[in-house]
Amino acid sequence: MRELVPTCDPEGVYSVKRTCAELGVSYKTLRKYKASGYIKPLNPDNASRPKYSGQSIIDCWKLLTTL
């Protein structure tokens, strides 16, 4: 996980690859975060291509740095 706050746009929509880059984690770790409820995709019905909002990426980072 990155030590600095993600620099993504809170209004933006991001792919799994870009979300992982912003958080500094692998896609497997992102999947664990999603299963644990730390981050929620914008389109939960589409399991094959989830998209994440920039605000949810920032919120996830803030939550995980306080654990």
TrEMBL record:
InterPro entries: DNA-bd_dom_put_sf. GO terms for molecular function: DNA binding. Keywords: DNA-binding. This is DNA-binding protein. The lineage of its organism: Bacteria, Pseudomonadati, Bacteroidota, Bacteroidia, Bacteroidales.
